[in-house]
């Protein structure tokens, strides 16, 4: 339904509004974009897809929730699951989602910096005093690096 509807919107935009769409903002569902590429609504315009950053951050949250749910009954370090105090809390999952989105938005023009920023989140959060992993952190948010500078 969505695929046919969006394709129809694109196809009749020239006739109804004298407009040709050159971009499609997608939410990760490849079916619509594949239809626009395989059956182009216009002969002279190549349509490009723009990904929705919010969709990526929602995916991160859902995957973390799924992992937490799947490990709910698994014994890890004498405790069941990965949730709880000192572990992965709901608030921490939501924060990961926000940090992930910020890493993408702040580095949208440089893929290497984006990858580094995303991994910096994980390294920072998994650090221990006995085993620090702050090599990719920024002193703007990392208390460990701020303490080293003093």
Q: How would you explain this protein's 3D organization?
A:
The chain is mainly alpha-helical. It folds into two domains: 2-51; 54-149, no CATH class. It is built from six helices and four strands, in the order αβαβαββααα. The strands form two sheets. The protein has a two-stranded parallel sheet. Helix 2 links the parallel strand 1 and strand 2. It is elongated, with a radius of gyration of 22 Å. The model has no long low-confidence stretch (mean pLDDT 87).
Number of helical runs? 6
Helical residue percent band:
40-55%
- Rough outline: elongated
Strand/helix succession? HEHEHEEHHH
Quote the average pLDDT.
87
Strand order of the largest sheet: 1-2
How many strands, which pairing sense, and closed or not: the largest β-sheet? 2 strands, parallel
Helix-strand layout with pairing:
Layout: H1 2-17, E1 23-26, H2 30-38, E2 48-51, H3 53-70, E3 75-76, E4 79-80, H4 90-106, H5 111-125, H6 143-149
Parallel strand pairs: 1-2
Antiparallel strand pairs: 3-4
Helix pairs in contact: 1-2, 3-4, 4-5
């Amino acid at each position: 339904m969505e695929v046919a509807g969006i394709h129809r919107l694109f196809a009749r935009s020239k006739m109804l509004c004298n407009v040709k769409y050159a971009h499609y903002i997608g939410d990760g569902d490849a079916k619509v974009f594949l239809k626009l590429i395989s059956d182009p609504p216009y002969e002279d315009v190549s349509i490009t897809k723009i990904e929705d950053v919010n969709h990526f951050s929602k995916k991160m949250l859902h995957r973390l929730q799924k992992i937490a749910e799947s490990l709910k009954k698994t014994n890890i370090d004498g405790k069941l699951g990965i949730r709880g105090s000192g572990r992965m809390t709901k608030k921490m999952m939501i924060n990961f989602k926000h940090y992930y989105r910020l890493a993408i938005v702040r580095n949208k023009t440089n893929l290497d910096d984006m990858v580094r920023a995303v991994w910096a989140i994980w390294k920072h959060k998994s650090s221990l005093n006995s085993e620090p992993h702050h090599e990719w952190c920024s002193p703007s948010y990392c208390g460990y690096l701020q303490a080293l500078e003093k």
